[in-house]
Every structure is written in C-alpha cells, then in structure tokens.
C-alpha cells in the first residue's frame, strides 16, 4: 500500500503537470518577482505558479487511490496529515491568488497569513487530541516528543487546570506548524530547492513510520524484551503511506520544477508541504527531531532571523548579502544549480543524522 500510494502520486504529478502548466498560463497565474531580489530571477517573471495544487491533488489521489485498491479505510491520523496539508495549502493559495490578482509580489500581509496558519494548526491540534480511533486511542497527546513522548514535558500535567495545559499545547503545535510552513516557504527561492529538500524530509518520515510499525506497542508480534522501546504512535504505517504519497508527488513535480523550471510551487505548495511535515512530526511523536529532519528549512529561517536582528541592532549593517541564505550565495556568483545541489546535500546529511539519532534512541532503550 505504501509503494502503491507513492507510485500513483508520482505518475499523477509527472504526467499531468504539463496540462496544469497550460491551464495556469491560460488563467494567467504567473509569478511576480521582487524588484529588490537577484536580477537573475527576473527571467522567471510570468512563470506559472501555484504548482502546489498539483502535488496536493496527487497526494490525495495516491492516498485514497491506494486505499481503494486494497479495500482499506484511511486511518484518522492520515486524514489529519491531509487536513493540515490541504488547510495550509489553502492559506498559501489565498496568498498566491492575491499576488496574481493584484499583479504584485506581495499577497496576504503578515498577520492575516499567520492567523490563517494558526486557525489550521489549532483545528488540527484539537482534532488530534480529542478525536479517537475505534480503539479509543487519540492521534496525539499533549506531550512534547523527541523519538516518543517525553513524560516530564506533558502540558496536561504542568497545571491543575486542564484548559491551561491545552492552551499551552495549542501554542506549541502552532509554533511547530508556522515554523515548518514558513521554513519551507523561505527555501522556495530557487528552482527545485524546496521540492528536493522536502523529498529528503518525507523519505525520513517514511522510514520512521515503517520502523514504528515494526516496533509498535500495539503489535501482537512485539517481543516482551522490546516493550520498553516500542512506539505508541497511532497508525504508523498509515503515516508512512501519507509521507510516501507526498514524496512521490514531489518527485514527479520536481521533473518540471528543476532548473529551468516550467512551473513554481508558490505559497500554495510551500505551506502545504510545511503543514504535512509538521503534522507528521507531531503524529509520529518526533517533534524535536524536526530540527534535523527539516535541517535546511531551519537554516534558511535562521539566516532570515539573524539578518533582521543584526540589521536592527546595527542600524543597517548586514551579515549576509541577502537573506534567505541561498540568495547570499547567488549574489556571491554561485550558479543556481550549484547552490541547489549543495543545499540538497546538506539536507541529506541532516536527515541521515536524524535517522541515526532516532535509531540510537531506540537502541539505548
């Protein structure tokens, strides 16, 4: 089922993207470029955007198509991942549509976008905590996690008032969701950069989901001596399937998004990817591991925060020639393809380390 979902999504995005490119050109959904950005980007003006619609649809087709083929139901946890992906993608779509409609490089202003992301993140968190599957197990708990829930970091146990613990948990989930979506969005500045980087992150969650399924606390086949190291995540194989479906969709999309790109994912795609990655981190109980799984996105976000902080503190001086950091190397004269491949390499190393840490924590138990 996992491979089937990935293959269906890949074929959908690979084969149908050219048709969407023609449609978006007809609708005049073209990209607008910042005037203060690198001059090399001005040739991309008018390039079809909102490509995220394609791989979001491909992911949905992959997940539900594979479930139909195998005559199985889609687990609640998978529906939650899809909800977060589609919800965040819709916020991104509104941003992209305003850019196209107003014919400028700015869509939603900062606070309306954050409010939209927070609304989706809050709804996801409430559903994950309170909606239970047929066994009565919630998709998520109110605990911060590394490779599984951290007992002393459970918001529900930090206060005698349940509502306060829930509010703290909602803040935590929104912090993860908004950070992940904005991190992917910041990385989406070069052809194929965010797409390829996200493929590495999602591949890591495929491996994590499969491993958690093999070591599930709910499995009758789990050895008694491994009970202390088993995992309590709900439907881990389903989560791996969702990650595989989005991964396959992005591989197909990358064929057309790599340099020179025929289409751009836009905020629709970047926020959708970020939402899915955040949801996978929360539901696989690997929230803090997201720092490594999304290593490149963290680096891009950190470069922007450092640049802004230093600029304000020094009244106009800069650390980088331009932020996010991939633009710094562009202005230093690095070819776009060189930056993309090297940044992909960084992401690959981050995810290899993440998987290593995940496995080492299991061995340590």
Q: Outline of this structure?
A:
Its cofactor is Mg(2+). The protein is mostly helical.
Structure commentary:
Strand 1 and strand 2 form a beta hairpin. The longest helix has 29 residues, at 336-364. This protein is mostly helical and 365 residues long. It has helices spanning 2-26, 52-69, 76-102, 110-130, 162-187, 193-214, 236-257, 266-283, 290-293, 295-313, 325-331, 336-364, and strands at residues 143-145, 149-154. Helices cover 65% and strands 2% of the residues. It is globular, with a radius of gyration of 20 Å. The protein has a two-stranded antiparallel sheet. It contains 12 helices and 2 strands, in the order H-H-H-H-E-E-H-H-H-H-H-H-H-H.
Keywords:
mainly alpha, 365 residues, cell division, PNAcMuramoyl-5peptid_Trfase, magnesium, transmembrane helix, 12 helices, Glycosyl_transferase_4, two-stranded antiparallel ribbon
């Amino acid at each position: 089922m996992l491979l089937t979902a990935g293959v269906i999504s890949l074929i959908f995005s690979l084969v149908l993207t050219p048709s969407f490119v023609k449609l978006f050109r007809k609708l005049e959904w073209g990209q607008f470029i910042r005037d203060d950005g690198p001059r090399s980007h001005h040739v991309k003006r008018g390039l079809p955007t909102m490509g995220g619609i394609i791989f979001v649809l491909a992911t949905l087709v992959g997940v539900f198509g594979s479930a139909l083929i195998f005559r199985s139901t889609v687990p609640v946890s998978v529906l939650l991942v899809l909800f977060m992906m589609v919800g965040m993608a819709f916020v991104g779509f509104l941003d992209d549509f305003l850019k196209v409609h107003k014919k400028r490089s700015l869509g939603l202003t900062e606070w309306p976008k954050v409010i939209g992301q927070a609304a989706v993140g809050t709804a996801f968190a409430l559903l994950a905590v309170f909606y239970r599957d047929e066994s009565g197990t919630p998709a998520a708990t109110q605990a911060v996690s590394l490779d599984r829930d951290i007992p002393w970091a459970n918001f529900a146990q930090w206060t005698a008032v349940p509502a306060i613990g829930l509010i703290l948990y909602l803040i935590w989930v929104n912090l993860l969701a908004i950070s992940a979506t904005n991190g992917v969005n910041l990385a989406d500045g070069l052809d194929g950069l965010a797409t390829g980087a996200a493929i590495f992150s999602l591949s890591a969650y495929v491996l994590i989901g499969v491993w958690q399924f093999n070591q599930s606390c709910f499995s009758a086949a789990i050895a008694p001596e491994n009970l202390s190291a088993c995992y309590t995540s709900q439907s881990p194989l389903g989560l791996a399937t969702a990650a595989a479906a989005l991964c396959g969709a992005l591989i197909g999309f990358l064929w057309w998004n790599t340099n020179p790109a025929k289409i751009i994912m836009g905020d629709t795609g970047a926020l959708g990817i970020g939402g899915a990655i955040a949801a996978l981190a929360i539901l696989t109980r690997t929230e803090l591991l997201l720092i490594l799984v999304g290593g490149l996105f963290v680096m891009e976000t950190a470069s922007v925060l450092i640049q802004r902080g230093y600029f304000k503190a020094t009244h106009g001086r800069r650390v980088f020639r331009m932020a996010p950091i991939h633009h710094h190397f562009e202005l230093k004269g690095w070819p776009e393809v060189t930056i993309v491949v090297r940044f992909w390499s960084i992401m690959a190393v981050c995810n290899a380390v993440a998987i290593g840490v995940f496995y080492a924590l299991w061995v340590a138990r």
